[in-house]
Automatic annotation (TrEMBL):
Native organism taxonomy: Bacteria, Pseudomonadati, Bacteroidota, Bacteroidia, Bacteroidales
Domain of life: Bacteria
Transmembrane segments: 6-32, 52-73, 93-111
Protein localization: Membrane
Record protein name field: DUF4870 domain-containing protein
InterPro entries given in the database record: MamF_MmsF
Membrane-protein topology: Multi-pass membrane protein
């Protein structure tokens, strides 16, 4: 059971290197795994898939809103000929690296060493 969950979280890790890959790659793995797996295994994968996709969509929305606000501040400070500090620009990049690369890697290693699967991603808003 843990091997299919490990592969699901590795698909999130692999998808982090493609646009919207952290949402699309787990769906692709799930569609391949549900044809070969038992019913209880597919139900567990579906639960984890929903958690992953909900969290990743929220992460994309946060980064999008952050970037809109950032570029609004950039443009408005340019028109007023004031200097805008761009140091906060790296906040969404750091968050993306943590939540799309490092965290799925941590979960995959955690599951690979034999720890039981639990809910790893929590969402404020449930899309699925």
């Amino acid at each position: 059971m843990n091997t299919s969950l490990v592969k699901l979280y590795v698909s999130v890790l692999i998808g982090a290197f493609f646009p919207l890959g952290t949402v699309i790659a787990p769906f692709l793995y799930y569609s391949l795994a549900k044809t070969n797996g038992a019913d209880e295994q597919v139900a567990e994968l579906r639960k984890h898939l929903k958690d992953i996709v909900n969290f990743q969509i929220q992460l994309y929305l946060f980064v999008f809103i952050y970037m809109v606000v950032f570029w609004y501040l950039q443009i408005s400070s340019y028109n007023e000929r004031q200097h805008f500090d761009a140091g906060w620009m790296y906040v969404p990049v750091v968050l993306y690296v943590i939540f799309a690369i490092l965290y799925p890697l941590f979960i995959a290693v955690h599951l690979k060493i034999g720890k039981p699967g639990k809910r790893y991603y929590y969402s404020l808003v449930r899309f699925f």
